[in-house]
Fold each of these.
Amino acid sequence: MRENLNSGRAFLAVLLPILLGSSAADALAQARGRSLPVEDMVRQADVIGVATVEGATVREESRNGLICTDFRLSFSEVWKGDPGREFTLVKPGGQLANGQKTTVPGHEFVLKPGEPVVVFASPSSLGNHNIIGLRQGLYRLGSGENPQVYRVSEYPLKAGASSSVTLKSLKDEVWRALGRPVESPSAPS
């Protein structure tokens, strides 16, 4: 029985991203607990940057019946691509006003309005964007001038207590993967 449940979860973890536009390889990597390297996420993403969650709407997707949560983001920094004026990041799962709820393994994270995030996203066939690697291409930001960043895949509900990755080091890694020169810190005046 447990094997069937685990097989079912692995199947959902692979099928749902495909329905939403992510690759099967990314889904399998996430289902098996492997982290995607930043270079791979940079290569796959069409939009990368720092954004703020403006709001969230739960809806039923009319084309496949899946309950989804749409997060509206506004970008303060764009590292790759063009998010346009209105950017929607979709997550499978959520709860409708009538109480109907869907929970999808690997997508149990919560984002709150006003929360800053770093997002690696690719277009979805449903007209919005998906997170690269299920949820690996989404980071929470800590506080401070050069905040620590936390992968949502490891911290689904809130930022962690300590991280070896800062916003600057993540940005530098993205810049290197894009073949751009890494920005030098400003000299004090």
Amino acid sequence: MTDEIEALREVSSILDGLPPEAVVRVLKWVSDKYKVDLTQIGSALSGGQSKMPPKATASDLPEYFNSAQAGTSAEKALVVAAWLQTVQGNSDFDSGSVNRELKNLGHQSSNITRDFDDLMARRPKLVVQTRKSGSTKQARKLYRVTHEGLVEIAKMRGEHA
């Protein structure tokens, strides 16, 4: 079991920095090399039930946000970020977009950068930075919610991932 955990850590650290299309190519190559049908993994491990995190289904942000019952400012940012990513189809998003939506919901962050730093500092990471434009500390950064972040939101919403 220890070898499996170490392998998962290494794979995760390698894939975290890749864009989604590169992750798909890598996983396809691995599945071909080791003759693994990726579509069967979730049901094989769970006795027929998939272990994939649920995709955000509420088409309406206020409904989705309220169903999550997020407590901290960082958790609120995570919920909005996941909604932008999964429902709106934004593979990457900036913190300003998240904070604008939070403001519309009446939950504007007093320091959105700190909130995203908090989400990235957690282990496992709930959000990863995918890009940075510019060299200053205030440069525009793009983020993506991780699989673990989506699982965390499913827990907040009372769903079982």
Amino acid sequence: MRSGLPSTARGLIHDHITRAVRPDDWLAFEELSEGQTYADLPEHLRRYRSDIFTDKYKRLAWNELSRTITAHLAKDGYWYIHPEQHRTLSIREAARLQTFPDRVRFAGAPSHRYRQIGNAVPPMMGESLGRSIISALKDRPGERRLEVGIRAELLQWHSKNSRSFPWRGADLDPWHVLMAEMCLHRTRADQVAPVFKALLEIAPTPHAMVSGSGRALEAMKSLGLRWRAENIIKVAEALVQELDGHVPDTDLELRMLPGVGDYVSQAVLCFGFGRRATLIDTNTSRIVGRLMGREGTRRWQLRLDLYGLAGEDGPDAAFNYGLLDLGALVCRPTKPKCDVCPLQAKCATGSGGHTVTAVEVSEEVMCKG
């Protein structure tokens, strides 16, 4: 705890200050032995109901673990009574329990300093977690790992097998991408293609979508799900009213639009603004699960896996289009074509040429663009 102090501070202990103790608290503290709590006090020294506040007071013990330091310490220190002295912990004692070395100082009034300590991740715990992460990232004997991404193989395959859709044009702006991605929700891409072409004529901008909403709703009628078509109108209205018709270029602002979730937001950032973004849906989740040989992966892990598979260039439009087409044409929900998959050699599920037999999603799952 004392390492790293400058020579001018080696004879000092900063922040070793504590609160004054009320006379009635002093009497209560005197009665408590190491490890005892509020429930151990005699009745006449209890200021609170002992059936509810059984541990309102807690005298720490030298040979036991300390109670977890929390931000509540800023309000009172009754949970942290010194093992011997009739007082609560000083700022420096709380910091040491939270594993802050003495060279770390805290700013503000005492209550502010207590709160900073209580809200902090203990440095030694952070170090331990960091070392565990480093250890987990290192190769282990016999462990299957994807040493390199799949980008090269995927893009080579995609150069000859890409699907062509009107919303993949290089001249489309973010509004066109946003409109297309909202249309594609729970609908087959081939159904959306003629509708999207009509929308490009009717509503090339959010302003045009608002003024031509009747024609736009009629054009989207064939897709079904009227609520979705109405939602696209609402998005256009929000863009016109709040952003002068401009599509925002941040994930948070995009997700604040009516009906825009993670997938659509990331797709607009990637295909509309040229950003690196991970697209997580049933198709990409299925591909990652099969490649890595695991099911039911959490969303944050899927995002990390996609970044890893994309390689140094990251999940750009070329990578994401390739992944989406692979899921539609090869790595299908049922009867995947493992024998022609460009990633078969790196796939934990399809390596060796055997066919995946587990049905992972229902017939309702549709391919996105």
Amino acid sequence: MRTFRIAEIGSPIGRLVVAGTERGVARIVFPEELGALEELADEGEVVEDRRALAPVLRELREYFSGRRSSFTVGVDLSRVREFARRALEATARIPYGSVATYAEVAARAGSPRGARAAGNALAGNPVPILVPCHRVVPAGGGIGSYGGHEERKEFLLRLEGSLEGSLREEPATLGA
């Protein structure tokens, strides 16, 4: 039986719940996705454990304060299947402060004509921020969607300096 260790963290984009396994971070849950914790409970035991997740919580705080541009903690994508995993792995390689299109992600994942499939894979990203799906934008312009919360995507892109009006000059403060 798999054990998911969880902890909450406040952030400028809302309260997040981080869930990790022995392999790494398996899920980052936005406030409106709390049903995802029930899904984890269906797959194994869910235990609150801030100490086990201290490294990722520290790195997230540093990221949101503008002091971290990459993550060193492990990510557990074992629950993600084939093409979606390849799309997430390609997305994880997009550098801080940069963006790529859905078509570019699809091509890097081995399916040059799979932009829509890449978009679907990113919509199901279990570890947003660590796998920076916010860095993927439509080829036709704009920032695109982000789980129905474009303001989160805009905030993250500004934090990283990918949009005009960057937040780099004034680092974000952690919210409740």
